[in-house]
Amino acid sequence: CGQGYYCRDCSLHELDLEEGARCGKYISGGAFCDNDDDCGPAVAGYCAKPAFEVEPSDNRSLLVRAADLIAGTSPVEMSTCVCERGWTCRRCEQRFRDLEFSGASCGC
Fold first, then answer.
1. What is the DSSP annotation of 25-87?
2. In what order do the strands lie in the sheet with 29-32?
């Protein structure tokens, strides 16, 4: 984990833990996104491009796969939201403390 981050998945900052957050209880992003606006309020998270590329799904028809091969279509890049310290949910729209103490919840 990076400095100051804890839990098995490195999802919580030490300040989140001091405020009452618990390991294994929160999601720290992960929703697909096109840009930072898809990931909560301006300070809540950002849209991160993966360091790897995922090949297109194999459920494409033979014709589509052949056309992609001929056209040299590049692999699909799926960017995902990454929450900043103190924020949670797939799109980083809630604060940890609001979920823990105010009864707020993440959207579907």
1. S--BEEEE-SSGGGSSSTTTEEEE--SS-BPPPTTS-HHHHHHHHHHTPPPB---EEEEPTTE
2. 29-32, 80-83, 45-48
- Phi/psi class of residue 49: alpha, beta or left (left: φ > 0; alpha: ψ in -120 to 50)? beta
For the chain, first and last CA: distance in Å?
28
Nearest residue to 15 (alpha-carbon basis) of 79, 95, 99: 95
Say if strands 94-95 and 80-83 run parallel, antiparallel, or are unpaired: unpaired
- 3-state class of 97 per DSSP? helix
Walk along the chain (108 residues) in steps of 10 and give the mean pLDDT of each run.
82 81 82 91 88 61 73 67 88 87 80
